[in-house]
Design brief:
The complex is a heterodimer.
Chain A (H helix, E strand, L loop, with lengths): L12 H16 L4 H18 L2 H25 L6 E5 L2 E4 H27 L2 H11 L1 H31 L7 H32 L17 H22 L18 H34 L1
Antiparallel strand pairs in A: 1-2
Chain B lengths: L1 E11 L8 E9 L3 E5 L6 H8 L8 E8 L2 E2 L5 H7 E4 L3 H4 L5 H11 L4 H14 L15 H13 L5 E5 L7 H18 L2 E5 L12 E6 L2 E6 L1 H9 L9 H8 L10 H14 L9 H8 L6 E10 L9 E9 L3 E5 L6 H8 L7 E5 L5 E4 L12 H11 L6 H13 L14 H14 L4 E5 L7 H16 L3 E6 L2 H7 L2 E6 L2 E6 L1 H7 L6 H6 L9 H7 L5
Parallel strand pairs in B: 3-8, 3-9, 6-7, 7-8, 13-17, 13-18, 15-16, 16-17
Antiparallel strand pairs in B: 1-2, 1-4, 4-5, 9-10, 11-12, 11-14, 18-19
Helix pairs in contact in B: 4-5, 4-6, 6-7, 9-10, 9-20, 13-14, 13-15, 14-15
Classes of the chains: A mainly alpha, B alpha/beta.
């Protein structure tokens, strides 16, 4: 992994949000195996490049079984298709269903890994900056919620420790332990409500009720962010044109259609391929740049 | 120019029969540092909230509040929100957002400033308040001191002309409190911001204050420079929270200018002792008696060479901690922040397992009162909480009411039994929490910073309760920052440092041996009187009380 964090995450939230939105839309609304393979490849490479070894291992343990499961389940339940391979319990298992299953598995993994990449790149700050553009008040509420979760967690620990030190939770029976947890929970709720009174006082003391509120975030939309956004839109436009011209059409039933190889189809594949690989390309570029800079020191 | 003028201000809450404030008049000049003091419930908070219009409570108000020459009702909402900053008591609750930078920008966003302006201003603030290193961090995991400093910075970002602070340091340990007060002084001196602070810890505030307003039961008893207020109050009473030097001055007869700092106190005491021959140590009968008191009683809690660390790869917090606590003894463990004093208590309460060494309670029940006493309460009234504890401890249905009444009587909380534990004041909450702890019938009582959020009167009350418990044979172990409290009340004190419990000794010997980590009284009397570590010692030795 890059020592300076994820290169792609340094773009402005708006650019990033548009990128992932378009990428996911294309991935969800196509069945074309070439496009889906490219989507999976991009998400896979980016995640691999930004994972630690342990995370990669955990990912493999999760995604490989899931891939196999999805790929196997489809032919067991779907019996359409013109080419039966063999019969199971008097039901045909068709070539088309097998290939379709594999395709769905590729699609599912691509979407999930892209979402994973999204959550890696869009930290809470970025999401807030995005929501703040829509509604400053909504951003404040979300920010308060984000602060509250760790606070509640800590308070839960504090109250239950205080209760343990008083002699609660020492009972063996499950029922009385549950009762002790219920006690702590009710205390936690009371505390949260009590706190809210002070928090709202603090908010109105700092002018929350004033009209003309503006939203502020640490992110600045730079030229680089603009170029990135333009690139995303351009690549997406080409891909969309391909979609509209039917270059990305693909069907598994009744027979598996052939992959288009005319020039415009190739252009569509290339545009989407670059779009999907963008985060990985930035990651590699940054690593190389650092290696180069260091070699000059 | 007068920045704030209150004229004949009276206020009554709708549910109360008496005025909470009656006929308060005072004027604060621009750039002044004003301390508002008085016991709990004297109306300090109500007064402050009335000045800040957004927080003003509902009720019957008469009189006039003028800010910068304008009537309060004539101020625009922007003038009021930005012009008057308000910092509350509770560090936890007044932080609003999830990130430090967002907290700083919150007020500026509300005022509708441009992004570029905000960016520069919050950068300035982060630098000035020394919180640049946590700029991008989450607010949830900051320490209490950092949170309070952040709240101050967030308020100052809106560049208020008047800064109101309601007991901002009461939840902080003394070191964080000192830092906070030093920052306030810096703001006042360097930026000229007018400051009004309500506090009961006055040792450090008096020397820097321009004006002191002393309130009692809703009236302004005295208002003037700190020395004027001391002189005016010297005749009938000086409040417990006043600086040690001023209290000694008053008890030794007053006269002349009141000393406010340790330095002035030393000067005063040296002159006083030159005129009146003090009692030397040899002739001090009381002293010889107290120091002769030997370690009695059977062991209650024994720590022998205890080692503990929280995780495998983290450093040891306890490194051979050894302690011998006796029945009926009050032991104070002092030490810096984050040194691991609380860890000693948690190990003693059996909440932690040491990886080496032994914690023995000799068959006695150890119960701990946590630092934040609110954590003890889990029911809707104080009574329910005490009864629940008694029931959990296996008391029979018939004896619960009598036992509850007994405990409440003992701690003086009978009138609070039907209240919600969150609705009582700091000192009262502590007594109620202690009542619940006592319902668990502890033979070893473990107290974590028991004097933290309470006023001097409540502190005195706490000392009385601890004395009573000790007389009944309960062993009490307290970890505290409060050297004055330890010096006045403990049987033995020790310093916790580097994972060890160092030099347990009687407070007189302990504090007399320390040069820096000691009481203000000891610093005032060093070299002038022998072995005086408390205010009472000085007054007795200097011959004030015959």
């Amino acid at each position: 992994m890059n020592k300076n964090g994820i290169a792609f995450s340094r773009f402005h939230p708006v650019s990033l949000f548009c990128y992932f939105l378009l990428l996911l839309l294309f991935t969800v609304f196509t069945q074309n195996p070439v496009l889906l393979t490219l989507a999976l490849l991009g998400a896979l490479l980016f995640n691999a490049a930004t994972n630690t070894a342990r995370q990669t291992l955990a990912d493999i343990k999760f995604y490989v079984p899931m891939f196999l499961l999805v790929a196997l389940v489809n032919p067991l339940f779907s019996h359409s298709g013109a080419t039966p391979l063999f019969f199971m319990n008097d039901n045909p298992v068709t070539l088309e269903a097998v290939l379709c299953g594999v395709n769905i598995a590729v699609q599912l993994c691509a979407v999930m890994l892209a979402c994973k990449a999204f959550s890696k790149v869009m930290e809470s700050d970025k999401l807030l900056a995005l929501f703040g553009k829509v509604s400053p008040k909504l951003a404040v509420v979300l920010s308060m919620a984000l602060r509250f979760i760790p606070l509640l967690k800590r308070k839960w620990g504090e109250i239950s420790e205080a209760q343990k030190a008083l002699g609660y939770f020492r009972e063996e029976s499950v029922f009385s332990r549950l009762a002790s947890y219920a006690r702590v929970f009710s205390a936690l709720v009371t505390w949260a409500l009590e706190n809210a009174v002070d928090t709202s006082a603090s908010m109105s003391a700092r002018g929350y009720e004033l009209a003309g509120k503006k939203h502020f975030s640490l992110f600045r939309f730079t030229r680089g962010d603009g170029i990135m956004l333009a690139l995303t839109v351009a690549l997406s436009a080409v891909t969309l044109a391909g979609f509209l011209l039917g270059k990305a059409d693909f069907a598994f039933y009744p027979r598996v259609s052939t992959v288009n190889t005319d020039i415009f189809s190739i252009i569509t594949y290339a545009a989407f391929g670059i779009l999907s690989l963008l985060p990985f390309i930035f990651e590699v570029k940054e690593v190389l740049k650092w290696k180069y800079l260091r070699s000059k020191i | 120019m007068e920045i704030l003028a209150l004229k004949d201000l009276s206020f009554r809450y709708p549910t109360e029969e008496k005025d909470t404030l009656s006929h308060v008049s005072l004027a604060i000049e621009e750039g002044e540092f004003c301390v508002l003091c008085g016991g709990s419930g004297c109306g300090k908070t109500t007064l402050m909230k009335l000045i800040k219009r957004e927080l003003a409570p509902h009720g019957a108000l008469s009189g006039e509040i003028r800010f910068c020459g304008k009537k309060q009702s004539e101020l625009s909402s922007r003038e009021s929100a930005a012009g008057i900053g308000y910092v509350l008591q509770n560090p936890e609750a007044q932080v609003i957002t999830d990130k430090v930078w967002h907290e700083l920008s919150f007020g500026l966003e509300n005022l509708g400033y441009d992004a570029d302006f905000i960016r520069l201003r919050i950068g300035e603030m982060a630098n000035y308040f020394g919180i640049a290193h946590i700029f991008r961090e989450g607010t949830a995991h900051l320490s209490g001191g950092q949170k309070q400093l952040l709240s101050l910075a967030a308020v100052m970002a809106m560049s208020p002309k008047l800064l109101l602070l309601d007991e901002p340091t009461s939840q902080l340990d003394p070191i964080a409190a000192s830092d906070f007060i030093a920052t306030l002084k810096k703001i006042n001196r360097e930026l000229g911001t007018t400051v009004i602070i309500a506090e009961h810890r006055l040792e450090e505030l008096f020397p820097i204050a321009d004006k002191v307003a002393f309130m009692e039961q809703g009236t302004l008893l005295s208002f003037g420079t700190p020395r004027e207020v001391c002189r005016e109050l010297a005749a009938h009473k000086i409040s417990l929270g006043f600086p040690t030097a001023a209290r000694i001055w008053q008890k030794l007869g007053g006269g002349g200018e009141a000393p406010l700092t340790v330095r002035e106190g030393r000067k005063f005491l040296a002159e006083f002792c030159a005129k009146n021959a003090p009692i030397s140590q040899k002739n001090d009968k009381e002293k010889t008696e107290t120091s002769k008191k030997t370690l009695g009683g059977t062991p209650a809690l024994t720590l022998s060479g205890v080692y503990f660390r929280y995780e495998k790869n983290t450093p040891d917090i306890l490194r051979g901690a050894t302690l011998d606590l006796r029945e009926g003894e009050f032991f104070c463990l002092l030490g810096a922040n984050g040194a691991g004093k609380t860890t000693v208590l948690r190990a003693s309460a059996g909440l932690l397992k040491p990886y080496r060494g032994k914690v023995q309670t000799h068959g006695k029940r150890a119960v701990m009162l946590p630092q934040n006493v609110q954590n003890v309460f889990i029911k809707n009234t104080v009574r329910e909480d005490i009864e629940d504890m008694l029931a959990t401890r296996g008391a029979s249905k018939e004896e619960i009411p009598t036992k509850t009444a007994e405990i409440a009587e003992k701690l003086g909380v009978s009138h609070l039994l039907e209240k919600h534990p969150y609705d009582v004041s700091g000192g009262e909450a502590q007594k109620c929490a202690l009542a619940k702890v006592l319902a668990a019938a502890p033979q070893i009582l473990l107290l974590d910073e028991p004097t933290k959020a309470i006023d001097p009167a409540a502190k005195r009350e706490l000392a009385r309760i601890i004395r009573e418990l000790c007389a009944e044979g309960t062993a009490v172990l307290a970890v505290t920052h409060d050297v004055e409290f330890a010096a006045e009340n403990a049987d033995r004190c020790a310093l916790f440092f580097d994972g060890e419990i160092l030099a347990p000794a009687a407070p007189q010997a302990f504090f007399d041996a320390n040069n820096f980590y000691t009481t203000a009284a000891s610093r005032i009397s060093r070299g002038i009187l022998e072995n005086a570590v408390t205010e009472a010692d000085i007054v007795r030795l200097a011959g004030g009380v015959k």
